[in-house]
Amino acid sequence: MWSTLLEYHTRKVETFEERNPPAIMPSTPPKPTLLTLPSEIRNTIYAYALSHTNPVLATFDYVFPTRFEQTPIPKLYFQDQDILAYYPRPRDGPGRILEAEANQLRYVCRQLHVETNGLSLRYNDIVVWHVGRVGGGLAACSIFLSSIAPRHHKHLRTVSVMANWLEDGLFSEREIGKLVTGKLHPYLYEFCRNNTAATLESPFTELTMLRLPTHPQRQPRSPIPLLYELKEPKEIDVSTFYAQRIIMQEWLFASVSTYRSYAILTTLHRHILIHGLSSLQQRIADLVNLDLQLYHKYCSLLTDEEVGEQTYAYAGLVWEVSLEAEMELMNREHLEWLLCEDAKMYERVASSVRRWKGEVDGRIGRRRSEQWIRGRPWEV
């Protein structure tokens, strides 16, 4: 009887379990990690994470401050403010704005170190900070560019150098010429020549090295692309206008033509070039008129015999002044070319004026001497 009841109960339980099977709980899938995502998605994340609003600060001076003689290791630092606005107070030092490295993902693991290598250079503008230990901002930039892998050079967009004229030796036209011809800082010259899409600029010297030629070129006789050009604002303040206008006047009316360097024009604002060209052409027009007046005065001092012996008539120099409206439509290359050509014309007209003035003064002097001699008897 007992066995019969036990079998009955067992069969009843089995029947219940067959009719009501236990619910199968779904297993929770594992959450995806960064490294399990497809490479295309990871690259998008890298671009978003490593792009900064302000330019990143490139420096190598803070890596081994006590062992600076060793090979420098470049590093990029994120900054919470624009270095261009902070730089006029260099005495505070750059340490206050060095928040953290721009690419901290490379310290997570080896795979992220490999995949994010060089991305901060690709997605950000670079500011090279100079703290006075390597001889100038351009020298610091040369060391920085030479210390990063050449394969990253093609990804650079804009490199700003914290430099000034005195620290970098750019206080003379000769030194500026050495810079743009590769004799001074040759690595920067080669970098600009091999990476035409990148811009190497110095915002405080107003000098931008762009499209350097692949071979030496002579002085142009027609407009050509700039060897280096001014990164100029649309407007110019009063003090800068008057300072650059003085430089323009010294360039225009230099006593020796060799002092008239083409490199100086590229450091001046476009408004200054137009103002200088207008004043130069007006001066040339006045000298052309004076040249013809001196010739007519010279002819009036000739005797009848000398007039009969003269076999030519001087017609003066041909000169045409450009309209100011035309100058406004010219680009920088055309303005600089016209300034160089008109400066040569100015020397030619000034030389002709001096020649006729000498002839006129000589005639007047001889006539006065003759009148003085005729008015006084000779003493025997």
Automatic annotation (TrEMBL):
InterPro entries: AN11006-like
Cited PANTHER family: F-BOX DOMAIN-CONTAINING PROTEIN (PTHR42085)
Record's protein name: Uncharacterized protein
Biological source species: Pyrenophora seminiperda CCB06
The organism's taxonomic lineage, starting at the top: Eukaryota, Fungi, Dikarya, Ascomycota, Pezizomycotina
